[in-house]
């Protein structure tokens, strides 16, 4: 296919399984073309996002060669629209220019070899994964595709959504700029973490909640397939209505705490439950498996605790049931 602009799409799904696509027209500035077909944009695929059209645009390219002489392989116009454009480049696709939206990167899909994270079935790299978090109307299903070292805290600050983080046998870590690897804020939301390792270093591994007197009604579940390695803090639980269900493993290297709260005003009202299969190790001479200075309830249904001091409690209720 050779044309000034090869394909224009406003709604629906475009699947390309192969072929050669050459756009040779001049780049249109501004990019909005007339509706009578007399103008081209110079792009191989031109996507117009318009709220008059009720469907999102989905483009799946499994193979093919794309070339634009003067413009872009794919250009999405009107990125302020409420609709979304999802583009998936996979297979042996050959492109000669970067996918671009009005002059900026807009990557929602990547070839498998470039992706580090899958979010709701779409691939992202470290520069684009936060775009995937925006697509959260029906929750977030996140799977690591490679070991990841973050350069900032991974904070989920959403109301009324469920989040699943499948570490997929991989390791999640962060550089020295991080204060915690994962944090769940918001109201009436949940985070389910499974199947991998979190290397927190000097940061906190997971933080549940934040300072507040109002009920957050949030919960984090850490399954028995998760290992958290940290220098000082494995998991911290903060604020009214912050709930933690823990069955995993925590290893604390220095003088710190496997699971801890905060006794200051506004940090109490937590609920922590530890289940059979959990293991917390904090063998430094000043290490604690559990440090509970806050109001709230902690219940131990089982588990193995190896520490210089297993439990330090200053407030709240502790139930040991197994």
Strand order of the largest sheet: 14-13-15-18-21-24-27-30-33-36
Helix content: under 10%
| Largest sheet properties | 10 strands, mixed
- Strand proportion, as a percent range, falls in over 45%
Contiguous uncertain segments of 5+ residues: 91-110
Summarize the structure in words.
The protein is mainly beta and 322 residues long. Helices cover 2% and strands 46% of the residues. The protein has one helix and 36 strands. A ten-stranded mixed sheet has the order 14-13-15-18-21-24-27-30-33-36. Strands 16-19-22-25-28-31-34 form a seven-stranded parallel sheet, with no helix packed on it. It has a seven-stranded parallel sheet with strand order 17-20-23-26-29-32-35, with no helix packed on it. A hairpin with a 2-residue loop joins strand 11 and strand 12 (104-105). The longest helix has 5 residues, at 129-133. The radius of gyration is 25 Å and the shape is elongated.
What's the short version?
The protein has 322 residues and is mainly beta. 2% of the residues lie in helices and 46% in strands. A hairpin with a 2-residue loop joins strand 13 and strand 14 (122-124).
Key descriptive features of the protein:
ten-stranded mixed sheet; 1 helix; 322 residues; seven-stranded parallel sheet; mainly beta; elongated
Secondary-structure blueprint:
Blueprint: E1 2-3, E2 7-9, E3 12-16, E4 20-23, E5 45-48, E6 57-61, E7 65-68, E8 74-77, E9 85-89, E10 94-95, E11 100-101, E12 104-105, E13 117-119, E14 122-124, H1 129-133, E15 140-144, E16 148-150, E17 154-156, E18 162-166, E19 171-174, E20 180-184, E21 190-194, E22 196-201, E23 204-208, E24 218-222, E25 226-230, E26 233-237, E27 242-246, E28 249-252, E29 257-260, E30 270-274, E31 279-282, E32 288-292, E33 296-300, E34 304-307, E35 309-313, E36 317-320
Parallel strand pairs: 1-4, 2-5, 3-6, 4-7, 5-8, 6-9, 7-10, 15-18, 16-19, 17-20, 18-21, 19-22, 20-23, 21-24, 22-25, 23-26, 24-27, 25-28, 26-29, 27-30, 28-31, 29-32, 30-33, 31-34, 32-35, 33-36
Antiparallel strand pairs: 11-12, 13-14, 13-15
